[in-house]
User: Fold these one by one.
Assistant:
Number 1:
Amino acid sequence: MLNFTSEIVKSVADTGLIEAAEAEALLVTPPKEDMGDYALPCFTLAKRLRKNPAAIAAEIAEKIAPSELIVRVETQGAYLNFFVNRTAFVRQCFSEISDDSKDFGATDHGRGKTVVIDYSSPNIAKEFRVFHLRTTVLGHALYNIFRALGYKVVSVNHLGDWGTQFGVVIAAFKEKGDREALDHEPLKYLTQLYVDYNRRMAEDESLRETARGWLRKLEDGDEEAHELWRLFCDLSIKDFKRVYLRLGIEFDHYLGESFYFRFTDEIIRKAQADGVAVESQGAIVIKMDDEDIPPVILRKSDGATGYHTRDIAAAIWRHENFGFDKMLYVVGAEQKLYFRQLIEALEKLGHGWAKNLEHVAHGLYLDTREVDGVQVRAKAGTRSGFKVILEDIIDDAVARAERVIDENYPNGFPGDKKQAAEAIGIGAIVFGDLKNGRIKDVVFDWETVLNFKGESGPYLQYSHARLCSILGKYGGAVEREVDFALLDDPEEFAIARLAADLPRILLRTAEACEPSVLCSYLVALAGAFNKYYTDISRHKVVDPANPARTKARVLMVDCVRRVLGKGLKILGISPMEKM
Ligand code: ARG
């Protein structure tokens, strides 16, 4: 990490009044120049130190001696303002970012630690819908972020491939299933069969009994039930993988609920033997401490295991096999209670590590439509034209991106248009999702996500391409030994400071499991550079009349390109070289 922030943090920590990690988290960039280059607000220290924040700021300031890097420390109310040696700062910043032997932004924060991320996890025999888009892109971004921080990260796709709905799907297929229709559009066809059977089942008890019978057969290992189930799984996974491939996502493990079914008998037996699980109305359950919270059902009264039982088995299996320090479940906020119950059940079963499980909850997409009788949460008045099938959304985005490219390049696009449209369309969807705080519901709007000038994926990709094009125009190799004193414009310092912030931003993003932090940061960085560059009279980068300054500015451009490109890749977006 850059020495400046660490030096500030160290100097503050050396006063003994605040710990390094806390100082690091508190450090902010002040809004005005006269407030210094970095500032440390002391409000939160007031309670612990039982002093007023301004007095604390003054006390810390008094104990800090100026150094070569930190020129001066001032207080302004509760704030400590640090002024750095700007030339030294810019030198250090761009030298570090351009150093190929170091992976700028990467830290060893997570060295020796393992994080398991359970994400995406769509349900077999159902179409891959927009509902699973948020978990998919969030989980993928978190996977990349934790890796950049040096963690060993294991991604698992906890496919919904077991449980009640399979009794229904098998029964429906046995009733009037058509193999040809199935092969033609498997997920669409299975969803139709499911919806239709489900609807009739509500009025016809005998259909419900048949579905239950098939589930029982499946759980008892019946061959025919198993064969159909296997077929549905294979067809579904093939479809899911096609979408993942387009999104650039790979999973370390596809381990669906079915995999853990084999462990459930033993878990239930032991839970009962230990007195953790009890019988209640014919079911076997683990009661929660808070009586208002429903118990976790390990075995239903009809003998079938539940979603919770398989998640308990999954957590135990993963703990044994991956030895995680942390496990994240990137799943919709509507399952909040479910995960609370899961964690409490695991604790009651004696697994102290259950405290390392975290439900990384996210909001939904809001839309107006109801599709195939399935209610997509609606918000009145919005007409986004947003489809529900994930692949349709991607196709739509790519087609729209192609149209925008045509508009922007009436004389032809300088590159492979199809490939660019694919990358831009996907970038638009991914960024359009991630820029929202994860817990917020998202109202999707094509105008916004595809706006090349707004806070969008295409805007960042375009900014990246612009940086590449400046370097292309320069033509020569980027030199690292430049006269850094020539980068003395306040806007150049602002760009350097932003670029230098990447490692800290990645940490914050990981701590809050909030990729929107990284999104805002990249928008700010691209914005700072674009603003700088637009002022062409003052900030011409390639200027034959001024070769020394050109070299320095070219290095800066290259560093911004590196940081922006890195951030985009972490989010799961392709940085464009031409656009
Ligand atoms: N398949 C579930 C759904 O679509 C999500 C699974 C999340 N992961 C888990 N371990 N429960 O709602």
Note: The two ends are 32 Å apart (CA to CA).
Number 2:
Amino acid sequence: MSTKYIFVTGGVTSSLGKGILIASLAKLLQARGYSVTIQKLDPYINVDPGTLNPYEHGECYVTDDGAETDLDLGHYERFLNKPTSQANNVTTGRIYQSVINKERRGDYLGKTVQIIPHITDEIKRNIKLLGRKGKYDFVLTEIGGTVGDMESLPYIEAVRQLKWELGKSAMVIHLTLVPFLNASGELKTKPTQHSVKLLLENGVQPDILVLRTEHDLGEGIRKKVALFCNVEEKSVVQSIDVPTIYEVPLKMKDEELDVTVLNKFGMIPGKEPNLEAWTSFLKKHKNPKQTINICLVGKYVELADAYKSITESFVHAGAVNECKVNLDYVHSEDITNLNVSNLLGKYDGILVAPGFGHRGIKGKIEAARYARENNVPFLGICLGMQIAVIEFARNVLRFEGADSTEMNEVTKYPVIDLMEEQKGITNMGGTMRLGAFACKVKKGTKLYDAYKKETISERHRHRYEFNDKYLKEFEENGMIAVGQNPETNLVEAVEIANHKWFVGVQYHPEYRSTVLKPSPLFVGFVKACLSK
Ligand code: GLN
């Protein structure tokens, strides 16, 4: 079959969950045996979110091929259990960069370079790139932002053109909100009508409308929306609030969203989607036998999205262990030597989060010390691992003032130091050690217990590394390098041998955790916390 293109746009407000909706639809199509991929188009001018503060757009997600991407790609991978790549996330910055590079090369042969057709052509090229060679039956593309935003206009225009070019092989799903007015006790469809009108002004007639709502819509509302927005009643789909995002695929199945999509493409829906593994995960997730409390020590704790992949990894690892993981965020700047036992004493496990810069470092070091001295299960991720190393150097090896050169360039003991290949880099965007690298795991360690493999592959995003000049002293005193890069010997994981479970990893295990393949390291950490 020829590749079919599905576009998802959003209206009325942001944060309606376009990412989850598109991932859920893709999941249903995948569960029917189709090959699918999901792409996100982001209307901002940054080339990628790598240079964005997490307060802006939440976590920066990293793919195998080292692309720094929008956190929605994390949802796509967690739902589909398939890796994404640079091609799955395109920003306005990237589009313009590529057009401007072409202009400088003279590719436009003296023509005036304009939004239409040059920018829209570049957008269309990036969408169709994924459908090339018939690799996928369905390419689903999420248009970031909300219809009506000035910066989304070129994307909507590209969708309009593609709908025209591709005819029956393209469709648009528009996600909107039906608010409930408490005072009058009514659900309101006007914002949806206006939002569809805005799309129509731009020449795009949506094929399916998905309505986010807190209350059941009932037939009346569906009929009304269908009438006002030129869609069939069957194509008005309700998306009611659910306790977990992982239930959305099942809700969309109940609404027969996948069937409606297939019918609109003129395809015959075969047997029901196979969601056995998915529902068995959900069953475990919703019926935990015990509860554990873990704290995440970080500095972006006001914003849950800043640590999205970590929180989701705990959902996956909790289900495997049939327990509920209560994850509390503790601000590292609130932790001091005096209050650490008060703040962290009640937890079954401590996680020190990734991060950059020196803000909140002291509190993170206290958290690592507390976990080490009190035999509390500990997982340090990236900066969290580096913190564990600094703490061990200062308090066990007695290296006074030991530090990472990220925090103190002139420390006497640079136990964490800039990687050789990072020296001389001045550009900040896309220049870290990024993407998947192999790691050799030492047998007889907690790390090996978790992965049960001698060679693993995990994703990275950092500039600094463990300074192996000090490795011997660390190992003689009980902190062991348990994971190393097979080619460069870079230390990728450390643990404390005589501790219950104390592991620090330079890589980000959270990026690889999916519903069907939870991260072995998170599973191991949760297990250790359970037996505290
Ligand atoms: N700032 C540290 C580095 O660049 C850690 C990065 C991270 O936690 N992702 O090495």
Note: The mean pLDDT is 96.
